[in-house]
Write a sequence for this structure.
């Protein structure tokens, strides 16, 4: 497999810029303000812990004033093609919906999700779901 170093550097620069924008939205309070607007009772929230980093997504735990806890998931820029990030999130949301509706498997409840154009922070497509703490038996 050929390695395209310029393309790799471009992806790394894009991810670095995106991570800085995500961090700034956390620091200046815009992320919590945005999440509050998506919460049905408009309860304020606070960030709990740092980012949960995966290969293709980052997660941020949000705790609302009523005690509910959500997980914000964003596809990582540089790890997911921007051409397919919307499709990736839409397919994941639909998959969770189908699993929840047709099986007894424990899956997170989806509270809000949207495509990149619907993210007021300009951070790409997103999912907000309950923060699932149950340990599976395997």
């Amino acid at each position: 497999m050929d390695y395209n170093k310029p393309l790799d550097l471009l992806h790394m620069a894009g991810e670095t810029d995106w991570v800085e924008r995500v961090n700034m939205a956390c620091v200046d309070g815009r992320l919590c303000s945005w999440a509050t607007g998506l919460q049905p009772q408009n309860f304020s929230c606070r960030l709990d812990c740092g980012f949960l980093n995966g290969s293709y997504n980052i997660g941020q735990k949000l705790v609302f004033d009523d005690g509910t806890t959500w997980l914000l998931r964003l596809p990582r820029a540089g790890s997911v093609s921007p051409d397919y990030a919307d499709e990736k999130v839409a397919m994941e949301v639909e998959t969770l919906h189908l699993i929840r509706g047709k099986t007894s498997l424990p899956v997170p409840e989806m509270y809000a999700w949207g495509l990149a154009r619907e993210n007021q922070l300009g951070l790409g497509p997103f999912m907000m779901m309950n923060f699932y703490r149950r340990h599976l038996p395997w």
